[in-house]
Amino acid sequence: MNETVITDITQTALPPAPGTDRHASLDFADTAATLPAGQSYDLLAAPESAMHWLAAHDLTTPDVQLYEVCAQRMRTLRGHIRTLLGARIDGTTPPEESLRAVNEALTAVPTAPLLAWDGAQGLRRIQAHPTDQTVNHALATLAADAADLLTGPDADLLAACGSAPCDRFLLRTHGRRHWCSTRCGDRARAARAYARRNSASA
Predict the structure, then answer these.
(1) Contact, 29 vs 49, CB < 8 A?
(2) Which domain holds residue 102?
(3) In CATH, what number is assigned to the domain containing residue 164?
(4) What is the spatial distance between Cα 188 and Cα 84, in angstroms, rounded to a whole number?
């Protein structure tokens, strides 16, 4: 079966997973996912969709133009963050390459909003990064959030969606729930019920 890749952010088949409202890096990791029926999506597959994602998360402004090399850098860091999340969930040693990639993003640029004077508004904090540093700033912010997630109290709540083939990450909100969405939970329950029926009739 051919896989259909959805690249338009408006066509995302699943709602945001639990915890993505608290950690932008978790939502960043979930910008690529495998879905049932031979579908997957990648919200960073093209510069336009990557730009849309950054703007929607207040990591840049919509007037900044991204190029494919920028989208590729975002996809590369996403892969490393996904690897680190998976290692934390599995309790395995994270690859040195992924640690290095996140640390390089962390130290590439300062992430703090700068102090500026505006004659009309007075003192205020602004993200005064040149266009060519926009992605550096966004990646540094996402890397810092990922580091906080992996080392903070929410790390113990990290989980991978338990409804194959979905491979999104989430924070457990209650009990032992490991589903990223109601749709995935319904599918997992239906699969278990089907397996019980088949076992009983065997």
Answers:
(1) no
(2) 4-201
(3) 1.10.3300.10
(4) 25
CA distance 163 to 46: 27
Q: Which residues pair with 169 in a beta bridge?
A: 160
Q: pLDDT band at residue 112, thresholds of 50, 70 and 90?
A: low
The string of pLDDT tens digits covering residues 152-170 is 999 999 999 988 888 999 9
Side-chain-side CA neighbours of residue 114 (13 Å): 10
Of the candidates 54, 17, 24, 47, which has an alpha carbon nearest to the alpha carbon of residue 167? 17
Amino acid at 131: T
CB 181 within 8 Å of CB 14: yes
Other Cβ atoms closer than 10 A to 58: 11
Task: Report how many domains make up the chain.
Answer: 1
Query: What is the pLDDT of the chain when averaged over all its residues?
Result: 84
Smallest Cα–Cα separation from 36: which of 154, 180, 193, 194?
180
pTM, full prediction: 0.81
Local structure of residue 162 (DSSP, 8 states):
S
Helical H segments across 30-181, by residue range: 47-56, 68-90, 96-108, 134-151
Residue 162: per-residue pLDDT: 85
